[in-house]
Amino acid sequence: MKKWQAKTLLMQFASILFLFGIVPVAMAHTDAATLRGGFFSGFMHPISGLDHVVAMVAVGLWGAFLGKPAIWILPIVFPLVMAFGGALGVAGVPIPYIETGIALSGLLLGLAVAFAVRPPIWVAAVIVGAFAIFHGHAHGAELPKATNPLVFSIGFVIGTGLLHLAGIAIGELTRWSWGEYVVRAGGGIIAMIGMGFLVGVL
Questions:
Q1: Residue-number span of the structural domain to which 191 is assigned
Q2: N or C: lower Cβ tally within 10 Å for the chain?
């Protein structure tokens, strides 16, 4: 096995372990108000809800599937726009159908991966950015009152970035012909989870 192939497989294995490690926490969807400490609260919040986790991993998967430059542009667009949405949440600016938007993000991004949708990069960035506002607003609205908003925001942007990186690493399986089917199947699973949240069974 070539050295770069071994490194890629190691990254993918580490990402899978990371995802298995956060799923028990995600299933609990801990309220941010129960996590004190500012940065830690922000860092844990993106990975404390399965609805957030699957959408953010899907962004990384889709970026890896689309290739360069999407592999880096989409995971940069999402946290930047999410921070804006978080600021709206902190400021109390109302946005309707937040939970619906979050559920749709998992459903539609998962379908994009499952069906190998390849839009122009600006279209993909707009789609990802639109969903990021819903996720960011949810984080900002649940900000603990005693927490520094800036420190909390830094934490949740970093937490989000790690989820994107996990998706990218798994998405690198598309280097192999069999890996594309695995990634697309992962997109299908994400879509089903998103549908579960949309219809209220999760």
A1: 42-199
A2: N
